[in-house]
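Sanity check

After download, print the first record. It should look like this:
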Amino acid sequence: MLLKTGNQAEASRIDTRWQELVALSGQSVPSEYQLTYPKELIDDMAATVHGAANA
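Expected structure tokens:
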């Protein structure tokens, strides 16, 4: 949603911090994560919410 509202820098900072947290925790992405939550689905949901909020 941050990308949809023109906040690329903030989105990048959040992504960087998230990656740091994941690395420090020693956790890994579950093997089925990409199948369950594909990027295209997340992007489509963000576009739908953004569109509805601006309607």
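If your output differs, re-run the checksum step. Summary of this record's structure: The mean pLDDT is 92.
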